[in-house]
């Protein structure tokens, strides 16, 4: 029948994003029904948009181990307080090539909606450009 109302969440990242420290105020727009991706958009005069995803939706075995100072800074007291968003890079549409940064997630306290982009304590276990979709033709330059 009717469409569910999907509200935008206002998020504050006091330290900005890595490399973009001036970007501190955002809104998170939930994805359409059934879509794992969301849009993280700056508020203010200059608008920047980032595609983000909850990694638990797409990746089995992704464990987000935070450093003690990040837990303290975000005032996280239990795992239910945490919202994790990873930034997605859409390199090309046709052929589709999409990666996700698993090393530097944005961690948000669900109670305060204050967050920060962190480098995981277990960052060596993951990649900054983990491939989600790769429909590029084979036969080009091979890595490895």
CATH topology: BH3618-like
Secondary-structure element series: EEEEHHEEEEE
Overall pLDDT:
87
Largest sheet, described in full? 9 strands, antiparallel
The name of the CATH superfamily reads BH3618-like
Radius of gyration: 16 Å
Number of domains: 1
| Percent of sequence in beta strands | 25-35%
- Share of helix, binned: under 10%
Spatial gap, N to C terminus: 51 Å
- What would you say the CATH architecture is? Roll
Q: How many β strands by DSSP?
A: 9
Helical/strand content category: mainly beta
Poorly predicted runs of 5 or more residues: 140-144
**Gross morphology:** globular
Please give the count of helices.
2
Question: Could you explain how this protein is built, in words?
Answer:
The chain is mainly β and 144 residues long. It has one domain (9-134): BH3618-like (Roll). Helix content is 8%, strand content 33%. The protein has helices at residues 55-58, 68-74, and strands at 9-12, 25-29, 37-42, 49-53, 82-92, 97-100, 106-109, 115-117, 130-134. Strands 1, 2, 3, 4, 5, 6, 7, 8 and 9 form a nine-stranded antiparallel β-sheet that branches. 21% of the residues are buried.
Could you provide a short overview of the structure?
The chain is built from two helices and nine strands, in the order ββββααβββββ. The chain has one domain: BH3618-like (Roll), CATH 2.30.290.10. It is mainly beta.
Features:
144 residues, BH3618-like, 9-stranded antiparallel sheet, 33% strand, mainly beta, 2 helices
